[in-house]
Amino acid sequence: MISEQTNSTPAGYTTVAPWVVTDDTGAFLDFVSQTFGGEELARVPTEDGLIGHGEIRVGDTVVLAFDRHTNWPTMPSLLRVFVTDADQAFHKPSQPAAMSSRLWPTTPSDSAEAVSRTPSAISGG
């Protein structure tokens, strides 16, 4: 007999939560906040000065993040963020100077996709 499953998702979270492991979670949280208007929910430091847990809400999604330890492998991450104006989001004056991005149209309805990387903010540095 299959039991009836109740919703175990905490209020304010989605059923699947992206988790990003970075070399500089503080920079990642700042980048997401400045670029996508993210609302930082948590930034918990560990005794060794790393961030052991971070959360930032972008739209209806909470992205979780924490710092990679130096003896862990690099774990690349990809996030797809829907914005109203991709050009505006990726060309703000608040962008890190070394940020690189590539925009290209994806549909005839003026949508665009971008690939970007900030120095040491997205895992792998």
Can you walk me through this structure?
InterPro entries: Glyas_Bleomycin-R_OHBP_Dase (IPR029068). Residues 93-125 are annotated as: Disordered. It comes from Streptomyces nymphaeiformis. This is Putative glyoxalase superfamily protein PhnB. This protein is of the alpha+beta class and 125 residues long. The chain has a domain at 19-69 and 82-117: Signal recognition particle alu RNA binding heterodimer, srp9/1, CATH 3.30.720. Helices cover 14% and strands 30% of the residues. The protein has two helices and six strands; from the N terminus they run βαβββαββ. The strands form two sheets. The protein has a four-stranded mixed beta sheet, covered by helices on one side. The longest helix has 12 residues, at 25-36.
In which order are the strands of the major sheet placed?
1-4-3-2
Which spans have pLDDT < 50 for at least 5 consecutive residues? Answer: 97-101, 118-125
N-to-C order of helices and strands: EHEEEHEE
Q: Which fold name is given in CATH as the topology of the domain at 19-69 and 82-117?
A: Signal recognition particle alu RNA binding heterodimer, srp9/1
